[in-house]
Specification:
The chain is an all-alpha fold and about 200 residues long. It has helices spanning about 1-5, 15-30, 40-55, 60-80, 90-110, 120-150, 150-155, 160-165, 170-195. α3 packs antiparallel against α4, α6 (about 120-150) crosses α7 and α7 (about 150-155) crosses α8. The radius of gyration is 17 Å and the shape is globular. It starts with a helix and ends with a helix. About 30% of the residues are buried.
C-alpha cells in the first residue's frame, strides 16, 4: 500500500507503528467530541441522493451513495472541507483515482511479498493523483497557518494542524491523512451498506 499511502499506520511496524497509532488515537478522541449537527449537511446530501437514485420499483443501490457520504464526512473531518464541496467533474476524478488506487492496493495486499509485480501505469497514475489531492489540502492548511497563525488554522484545519504539531514533517502529515482517509471511508461505507 506504500505507493498510495506512504508512511503511516498501515505500512509500518514496530516503534513507528506505535507512534502512528498514538497520533491517530488522539485524533479520534477529538472526532468523538463532534456534535451530530456537524454531520447534518452530509446526511442531507445522502438523503437527496437516495431520493434521486430510487428506481421505478423503489429499489436503490446504496453502495455508491454510502461511499460518497463517507468520503465527504471523512474529508470534512480530515481536510477541513468535504469532498462534496468540489466541482462535480473534479470530485468525480478524485473519486475514480481513489477507487483505482484502492483496487490496486487490494491486489498488491493479496500478492504479499510479490506485491511489486502489480504496478501498472493506471495504478501509479491513480496513486500519484490521490497523493497530489492530499498534498493540496495539507498545503492549504499550512499556508493558512502561515498567514493567519496557528490558533486560527487549528480551528479551521484541526486534524492537519494537530498532526503538524506532533510531526513537524509535511510528507508524514500528508501520509497520515491518507491512512486515516482509507480507514474512515471504505470500512464505514461498507458497514453502512450492510447495516441498511
Amino acid at each position: 500500500m506504500l505507493p498510495l499511502l506512504g508512511e503511516g499506520i498501515f505500512s509500518q511496524d514496530g516503534p513507528a507503528w506505535k507512534r502512528s497509532r498514538e497520533l491517530i488515537r488522539h485524533q479520534f478522541v477529538r472526532v468523538h467530541k463532534e456534535t451530530p449537527q456537524s454531520f447534518a449537511p452530509h446526511v442531507d446530501v445522502l438523503l437527496a441522493g437516495i431520493a434521486e437514485a430510487a428506481t421505478a420499483d423503489g429499489r436503490i443501490d446504496l453502495k455508491p451513495l454510502m461511499f460518497e457520504y463517507t468520503l465527504s464526512t471523512t474529508t470534512g473531518l480530515l481536510f477541513g472541507e468535504p469532498h462534496s464541496n468540489m466541482p462535480k467533474e473534479q470530485g468525480d476524478a478524485v473519486r475514480q483515482n481513489y477507487d483505482d488506487a484502492s483496487f490496486g492496493c487490494g491486489i498488491r495486499v493479496r500478492l504479499a511479498d510479490a506485491a511489486f509485480l502489480y504496478n501498472p501505469a493506471k495504478f501509479k497514475k491513480a496513486c500519484r493523483a490521490v497523493r497530489d489531492w492530499a498534498t493540496f489540502f495539507a498545503s492549504k492548511a499550512m499556508q493558512y497557518k502561515d498567514e493567519h497563525g496557528e490558533q486560527a488554522a487549528a480551528e479551521k484545519y484541526p486534524f492537519i494542524i494537530d498532526l503538524w504539531k506532533e510531526m513537524q514533517d509535511f510528507d508524514l502529515v500528508r501520509d497520515q491523512l491518507l491512512h486515516i482517509l482509507v480507514a474512515g471511508r471504505d470500512s464505514t461505507a461498507s458497514l453502512l451498506c450492510w447495516t441498511m
